[in-house]
Design brief:
heterodimer, A: mainly beta, four-stranded antiparallel β-sheet, B: mainly beta, six-stranded mixed β-sheet, globular
Chain lengths: 113, 116
Amino acid sequence: GAVVSQHPSWVICKSGTSVKIECRSLDFQATTMFWYRQFPKQSLMLMATSNEGSKATYEQGVEKDKFLINHASLTLSTLTVTSAHPEDSSFYICSARGTPGLYFGPGTRLLVL
Amino acid sequence: AQKITQTQPGMFVQEKEAVTLDCTYDTSDPSYGLFWYKQPSSGEMIFLIYQGSYDQQNATEGRYSLNFQKARKSANLVISASQLGDSAMYFCAMRRDATGNTPLVFGKGTRLSVIA
């Protein structure tokens, strides 16, 4: 079946640094990918919709200048957390359209010290 | 706007027993899809079952079945013959367009614990 991969699985970084998370569709093309964030013991919250070849669509309350999304090809979307702060520590999950639901990546745990 | 409500923060069930996880939804769209995902402690999201708004029959996938009551806007997940490996978070989700390329909206989840 379709597989979505994410890299890295774990990131620990210092406050103020930028972190890039990659999301790849391994055996299918994804014109649209979705980025979710999940805080501990909470649900998944949609951050943005990543569209190949065009600007991402951000959900209300999500800072587009802080969470940069680039969907440069049909199989790769990247999320860059710029100038990360401890409150950005979270579990970030990407997903792409599947049949019938969404295929999810394994997630990236970000810890900002 | 769509909304998913899961009123049970946590549930316990004895091994080999059946359990029902509640989910209600709210939408004004005539076409939508309802999903259940399982999230173990590893964090991965595992697709369990899907129900389209126009599907006449309740969906079933192995030990999982979805009790779809459209008039009540409920889509409860029934797990039969619970196993210890079923212990996890369970999320009900909805997609606005049943077949379109739109994101999922998730409920807050229910933590299921299966007791030996």
